[in-house]
User: Fold this.
Amino acid sequence: MKKVLDREKLRSVCRGLRSRGRKIVFTNGCFDIIHIGHVRYLKKARGLGDILIVGLNSDSSVSGLKPGRPVNSQSRRAEVLASLMMVDYVTIFDEETPYKLIKSLRPDILVKGGDWKKEDIVGSDIVPETFSLPFTRGVSTTRIIEKIRGLSS
Assistant:
């Protein structure tokens, strides 16, 4: 099964999944350097439904959000995410936010990390259920990069 799909193909897959009564969970992010916080978060997200879709920021959208990033290209980030057993599908989006993607896929559940208030999560106005999941304290891609660069201990 191919897990990295373009928006149109994934939309078709979602229609089929919904027709079979499967509960679709959607999350999104840069996922530049996968760490334990990401793994725990994705496991929790997957536990909320039957299918987990990750909307992955494209290289250009990451660079607009985080100067000097991404470290890893979108194709490599997508391949790493797709290799995780809790991730069912990955799709790359180029917009600043995943709003159009969420509207197109129509997931049942929307999930983001704990730094987001539920009402501020992009797409929460169009998805039936929205969750803000807690972070793993002390772990972030930015901290990892800073440590590698010798900027922190």
Remarks:
- The chain has a mean pLDDT of 90.
